[in-house]
Design goal:
Largest sheet: none
Order of helices and strands: HHHHHHHHHHHH
CATH architecture: Orthogonal Bundle
Distance between the termini: 12 Å
Number of domains: 1
CATH topology: Hypothetical protein af1432
Shape: globular
Structural class: mainly alpha
Number of strands: 0
Strand content: under 5%
């Protein structure tokens, strides 16, 4: 990927967050930007590989791409943000970033099935979105999902996602992640 294209990707990310990052994150007490930055922060704290840090940062970028109202889940509407994120990310980022990001909803469904106590710790908005997204996986779905080559990274990202709802938490800026984002673009030398 030529450097102008790389600059275009980082510029597009900055512009998306500038335009939509201050919108509410799904009924939680944080904004879309705060949630994304906290997810990346927690990924770093958990010792995640750099590609998972970028996936955590961008996993909900689909929320910044659609035109649905913030309260769409209150009306039973699944915004399919993970699919929108994948469509936007796939031509731009390496698979190690796109796959965990697009699987974070399935990871929630998996954990709701497979991990005792997981469902009980979900916030009310997360419980609501889980129901809209298909609810906990069945045993067969969970067994199949566990075979996915990016399963572990998707589960780690999901844990960061759940943690990233802390009002007024001080974390690094979006701009601090731009060099790392560039390293994870398709065709980068990293």
């Amino acid at each position: 990927m030529e450097s102008i294209q790389r600059d275009d990707v980082t510029r597009a990310i900055v512009e998306l967050f500038a335009a939509h990052g201050d919108s509410n994150y799904g009924g939680e007490a944080v904004t879309q930007r705060e949630h994304a930055l906290q997810a990346a922060h927690f990924a770093r704290q958990m010792g995640a590989p750099e590609h998972v840090v970028v996936a955590a940062l961008l996993h909900d970028i689909g929320h910044l791409l659609h035109d649905l109202p913030e309260d769409a889940p209150d009306h039973g509407v699944d915004d399919l943000h993970e699919a929108l994120a994948y469509q936007w990310m796939e031509p731009r980022f390496i698979e190690a970033v796109t796959q965990p990001a697009c699987l974070h909803v399935q990871a929630k469904r998996y954990l709701a099935h497979a991990e005792e106590g997981y469902f009980a710790q979900l916030s009310p908005p997360s419980v609501q979105s889980l129901a809209i997204q298909g609810g906990p996986m069945t045993a067969d779905e969970a067994a199949e999902f566990a075979k996915h080559p990016h399963f572990e990274d998707a589960i780690l990202l999901r844990r960061c996602d759940e943690a990233a709802k802390v009002p007024e938490l001080k974390v690094d800026s979006l701009e601090s992640y731009l060099p790392l984002i560039e390293q994870c673009l398709r065709g980068s030398a990293a």
